[in-house]
Amino acid sequence: MTEAANPGAHSRRRGRPRIDLRRLGRAALMGPAVRDRLPDAIGHVVDAHRAHHPDADLATLHRAYVLAESSHRGQFRKSGEPYITHPLAVTLILAELGAETTTLTASLLHDTVEDTEVTLDQVRTGFGAEVAYLVDGVTKLEKVDYGAAAEPETFRKMLVAAGNDVRVMSIKLADRLHNMRTLGVMRPEKQARIAKVTRDVLIPLAERLGVQALKTELEDLVFAILHPREYERTRALIAEHSGACTALDTMARRFRTVLREAGIPAEVLLRPRHFVSVHRVCLKRAEPRSTDFGRLLVLVGEDADCYAVLGELHTCFTPVVSEFKDFIAAPKFNLYQSLHTAVAGPDGAVAEVLIRTHRMHTVAEAGVVALGNPYAPTEGAEPADGERADPTRPGWLSRLLEWQQSTPDPDHFWTSLRADLAHNREITVFRADGRSLGLPAGATCVDAAYAQYGERAHATVGARVNGRLAAMGTPLRDGDTVQVLLAQDASSGPSPDWLDHARTPGARIAIGGWLDAHPEPSRPPHPAAPRRPAQRTAERPAAANAVVDLPDATVRLAGCCTPVPPDRVTGFPVRGGAVTVHRRECPAVARMTRAGRSPVAVRWGDAADCRVTLVAESFGRPGLLADLTEAIAAEGAAIVSATVEPPTEQRVRHTYTLHLPDATGLTALMRAMRDVPGVYDVSRTQHRGAPAVTRPRSE
Q1: Which helix (H) or strand (E) holds 296?
Q2: Residue 386 burial (CB < 10 Å; 0-12/13-18/19+)?
Q3: pLDDT-flagged residues of the chain (< 50)
Q4: φ and ψ at 429, to 5 degrees?
Q5: pTM of the prediction?
């Protein structure tokens, strides 16, 4: 297990030092051996802490160490080491990440209340309420067994504790990292069980909290335990290509020259990949490139410098366009910010490049740990009661806290948690009022509805995506604008089909809960539901005032797009010497053009009347059909035919073929129809199979 305990030993870096937890071993922790007494290892923690917080109150750490060392004296770990080495190692990990003094104090004491005679009141008296709060949060997690049967409830409590203070989760992750480093003393089956829990839950949580330094080492440790053969092959491959960084070194020197000549102060560092990252690259490519074993990291002072560096590199080298990603303008859900690109040098070597500021780099490595104490009282602020407001709490964590309260069954919670953590990418969509929603990649309109309205989303009858009506199962993309349409009847419920479209636990739990509580259809049939589609035919004939330059040709207006003046139109000859006229943007035009059909020029004649087919989407209500027909008649239009489809999820679709005495009145007609209460959209048909003109105009 030597390699497993230090799987990133190949990661030697040049230039500016970065957070590298892998170099921290027992020797560095304990210092030189001192006979008959434990060495003052707190000095290593103090040095690491002072590097990030020069003005920190070190006396508090000294007092916490004295209490922890005296309390754990006589206790030993399974490895035979004094137990104090464990809280010291956990605290040193957090100190290297830049955690503030309160977190480090709680980390030193995190096992004292659980494993010694020290009480929580003593911690509160000696170190304050904040430290006691953190110690209590970690202690509650430690009291639950990590056996397979207890896992669901364990991680429910973990999430609640993390939600109330993200520093509790930070301590827990560092605690797990040190335990994974020393897992070799346990039985293989227990190693595998702990590694699986770490892989399924703790690594995704570390990713979501943005603590990449912990996440990458945990990944390598789990990889070594659960996949020893693949791990050995990867280790051998890295050893075989130990000199492969030469190509990246050459690229780094060229980068420095280019940026220096451009007057951009920047540091260019070589960043070797960790084991799991190399393994993933090998899965993508049968033969890894020499530059696949690392990436180049460019660190600058200001955000604007990031884009200046990008411009210089893309100007002086050949960019790989498909590799560019801007996580500065659109940060990841875990606070991560960086520009990603790849460029090819003169010799064809392709290097992946990360461009970020020093601050972005700190947050990328340490995530929420680097944000300090989010609960520090501000001057003049009133102390909050109950749950504390956390400005650093990620949106995904807030959502998990909400839906876990609605899931009394621990197994259901566990299943939902693992499914949610499996989504490692988040998108941002915008509501109609301009506010944003964070959703996992692959989320649909169903998820957006429940994210915005909670259980009120049961009354959803539709949605608009970027201004267009969309099915509830429509997948959303980053940057989409979503308007959720709610029925006036708040007692309505969701469709069972929505479960197939829901991707977020919150949506699935809410829908499932409603369906379980309403096993029988609870919504009364809508007044319009029983009747079959009705047809109404007016006595007035249709008008086709389009003119083509073909003698004796009969002109027909296409029913799929129902063109009217002054639409831009084109025509296609059909059998019988007729010409069918379509709007130029009609999908049928593209199909016939691809099929080699020759178009015919069409112009509008002097006649002003026209025939058009309109579709009205509405919420169902009594008297809707009468109100719509009255609005149509008030605008001087005649109904040639009308179809009312049976309601679906309280939505009703009306299709009207109308004769207008003047085409210029179409806009006013559609506006009048939209103004009818309950109608939320009116559009012209553009689909094949839409009602066509059935009665040609009599000349």
Answers
A1: strand 294-300
A2: exposed
A3: 1-39, 144-150, 378-393, 521-543, 687-699
A4: -120, 160
A5: 0.60
Each residue's pLDDT tens digit, 392-426: 445 555 555 565 565 555 555 655 665 665 555 67
Tokens 């693949």 appear where? 230
Tell me the pairing of strands 651-660 and 602-604: unpaired
What span, in angstroms and rounded, lies between the C-alpha atoms of 255 and 660? 68
- Residue 316 is which amino acid? C
What residues does 436 pair with on adjacent strands? 430
Contact 627, 633 (CB under 8 A): no
Q: What's the token pair of residue 475?
A: 């997948």
Alpha-carbon distance of 295 to 297, in angstroms, equals 7
Least Cα distance to 120 among 136, 134, 104, 138 occurs for 136
**Secondary structure (3-state) at 610:** strand
Would you give the DSSP letter of residue 361?
H
Q: How far is CA 522 from CA 102, 459, 460, 472, 500, in A?
A: 54, 13, 16, 21, 21
Tell me how far apart the alpha carbons of residues 438 and 476 are, in angstroms, rounded to a whole number.
11
114 is a catalytic site residue: yes
Token pair for 218:
């945990």
Polymer length in residues for the chain: 699
Q: Hey, is 495 helix, strand or coil?
A: coil
Retrieve residue 549's tokens. Answer: 């330059």
Instruction: Supply 367's token pair.
Output: 């995530």
Phi then psi for residue 508, to 5 deg, are -65, -40
Query: What is the arrangement of strands in the sheet containing 460-465, beginning at the earlier edge strand?
Result: 436-440, 426-431, 481-486, 460-465, 468-470
CA dist 43 to 39, 66, 88, 126, Å? 9, 12, 10, 21
For 329, phi and psi rounded to 5 degrees? -65, -35
> 585 is written with which tokens?
């943007």
Q: Exactly one of 20, 40, 81, 115 is catalytic; which is it? A: 115
Q: Which two tokens stand for residue 276?
A: 């799991």
Tokens found for residue 531: 């009747």
The helix or strand, by DSSP H or E, that contains position 510, with its residue range, turns out to be helix 505-517
Taken in order 99, 104, 105, 107, is the CA torsion positive or negative?
A: positive
State residue 139's pLDDT score.
79
The active-site residue, picked from 20, 40, 114, 230, is 114
What are the tokens at 280?
Answer: 């993933």
**Which whole-number Å values give the CA distances from 664 to 50, 548, 567, 637, 658, in the listed order?**
76, 21, 11, 12, 14
| Residue 679 phi, psi dihedral angles, 5° rounding | -85, 125
CB crowding 27-50: b at 16 or more within 10 Å, else e: eebbeeeeeeeeeebbebbbebbe
